[in-house]
Write a structure and sequence with these properties.
The complex is a heterodimer of chains A (about 280) and B (about 190).
Chain A: H1 3-17, E1 21-28, E2 33-37, E3 43-44, H2 50-62, E4 71-73, E5 78-79, E6 86-87, E7 106-108, H3 109-118, H4 122-132, H5 134-143, E8 149-150, H6 158-162, E9 168-169, H7 171-179, H8 189-200, E10 217-225, E11 228-236, E12 243-250, H9 258-274
Antiparallel strand pairs in A: 1-2, 1-12, 3-9, 4-7, 5-6, 8-9, 10-11, 11-12
Helix pairs in contact in A: 1-9, 2-3, 2-4, 2-5, 3-4
Chain B: E1 2-5, H1 11-17, E2 22-25, E3 29-32, E4 36-40, H2 43-48, E5 50-52, E6 55-56, H3 69-73, E7 77-80, H4 83-97, E8 101-103, E9 128-134, E10 137-138, H5 142-153, E11 160-161, E12 175-178
Antiparallel strand pairs in B: 1-4, 2-3, 4-7, 5-6, 8-9, 9-10, 9-12, 11-12
The chains are: A alpha+beta (about 280), B alpha+beta (about 190).
Chain lengths: ~280, ~190
């Protein structure tokens, strides 16, 4: 499959699915080839922004600013970036309940990072984001020369949402972020290895990995809200270097099979890469 | 527990604990910080130290990584002597509610160097506790907080509880109980320099 064919297939899938937009960015370490389909289009980040929080946490640890084994008070109480009003993460809307069970007590920073990625814990995310601060996360991304990832606020800040203040990403931004896990630009080898292990332990595997061969390992992070379904990750295949891919979709609320759409695009990308 | 005069501590500890210093609050109030501390040589020591039948020292000094690095990571730890008085009040409270009383992390003693911010408050004197749970009841609603606030207030006029609410000085996810800016000078020790 050539690049034009991949563009055409993605467009066909988008049209057939009823989605409003699909953005795809690929970087293949084997060939150093880049592919971009609406790669610089901005999307609501949903939970893909949690990778940026992970990266900033490990950067803070590498810089000696924090220790990953240090403990943080688990408190479900956050302030909106708009008016400082208080909001809480709804337990029944959070994919992970383990962190909620620790309210009042403390957890190690690394113990928060793991459920933030592996089970997309919103509470863990907000705790780490509040601790690190959005400014620190953005400064880490700037230092890493990662454009295309904007982290403004925590999850479920509905006042900010109503004001149109959201975390946003582009497919190329997410791929640049994932490349930090492979390249010796910002992190120690130990940090890269630990972040990769956390992303490899992802428990939500119905998108990028779903239609890939069993031999594929995927270090990835999904993100879903009512109008967006995303997945971004590093795909590790036997006998070749990995590729980084971000597949972001935007669609009307309530659209069916949006995860399947991402899985199909992931399969197309795999066929393109391995052709 | 061994009592130490904070003025004899290392320069690094004095800079963080500021023993005996006057602490200004918004330029309108000033309170003298604790000078006498219990010396805790290990976390095991804190867990083994039963201040009252239901409260160990460790429960009242647990902080997170917003505490100053030296005070968080190295022993000995130093805890203002008023912590024993706080424990006695919490024990009385526990007897009245007839259920386990859980004090939050950062919700007992924390040093003046703790990065949680806000106005100086009796936590720095080891004279305040943030209770987040009583038995199976989470104190995260107006009803539960006010119910247990009334019981805490019934311990005596010296007990202050923050009202329920979302503004500064109010609480919405725990019950804050304090005894004011309580200083304890153990017998045999002096306020003379």
């Amino acid at each position: 499959m050539d690049e034009q064919a991949l563009h055409d297939h993605i467009d066909s899938l988008r049209a057939a699915s009823g989605s409003a937009a699909i953005g795809v960015q690929i970087f293949d370490y084997e060939t150093e080839r880049t592919f971009s389909h609406e790669g610089d289009r901005w999307f609501h980040a949903a939970s893909t922004m949690k990778v940026a929080v992970l990266v900033a946490l490990f950067h803070a640890a590498d810089m000696g600013r924090v220790r990953l084994e240090d403990r943080l008070h688990v408190r479900n109480r956050f302030r909106s970036i708009v008016d400082r009003s208080i909001f809480r993460v709804q337990r029944d809307r959070d994919a992970d309940s383990a962190v909620h069970r620790r309210v009042g007590r403390s957890m190690k920073l690394i113990e928060l990072a793991e459920p933030m990625i592996m089970r997309s814990s919103n509470l863990a995310t907000n705790l780490l984001l509040e601790f690190l601060t959005p400014d620190y996360i953005q400064s880490t991304l700037k230092k890493a020369k990662v454009d295309g990832v904007q982290v403004l606020r925590g999850v479920e800040d509905s006042v900010a949402f109503d004001h149109g203040l959201n975390n946003t990403v582009t497919p190329s931004g997410l791929v640049a972020l994932l490349r930090l896990l492979r390249e010796e630009r910002l992190f120690s080898e130990s940090a890269r290895s630990r972040m990769l292990a956390i992303l490899l332990a992802q428990e939500f595997n119905s998108m990028i990995p779903a239609l890939l061969p069993d031999s594929a390992q995927v270090a990835h992070k999904t993100g879903e809200i009512s109008t967006c379904t995303h997945d971004a990750g590093l795909v590790l295949l036997p006998g070749r270097r990995p590729y980084a891919v971000a597949i972001l979709t935007e669609h009307p609320p309530g659209l069916d099979d949006t995860q399947k759409l991402v899985a199909k695009v992931s399969r197309l990308v795999y066929e393109f890469i391995t052709a | 527990m061994k009592v130490v005069d904070g003025l004899t501590l290392s320069a690094e500890h004095r800079a963080l604990l500021r023993p005996g210093e006057m602490l200004e609050c918004d330029g309108q109030e000033a309170h003298r910080l604790p000078r006498y501390f219990y010396e805790i040589d290990s976390w095991a020591h804190a867990k083994e130290t039963q201040l009252t039948p239901h409260f160990t020292l460790s429960e009242l000094i647990t902080v997170d990584c917003r505490e100053a690095d030296l005070l968080l990571h190295s022993f000995p730890h130093y805890v203002p002597c008023a912590v024993i008085v706080l424990a006695r009040y919490l024990e009385d409270f526990r007897q009245r509610v007839e259920a386990p009383v859980c004090v939050a992390v950062n919700g007992g003693y924390r040093s003046p160097a703790h990065r949680l911010g806000g106005r100086p408050n009796p936590h720095i004197w080891a004279a305040a506790a943030n209770i987040y749970r009583v038995g199976d009841t989470w104190l995260d609603s107006q009803k539960s907080i006010e119910r247990y606030a009334r019981i805490a207030e019934s311990l005596g006029p010296e007990v202050y509880v923050r009202p329920f609410g979302f503004n500064p000085g109010e609480t919405d996810d725990h019950l804050h109980v304090d005894l004011g800016y309580l200083l304890s000078t153990p017998r045999g020790y002096s306020e003379l320099q």
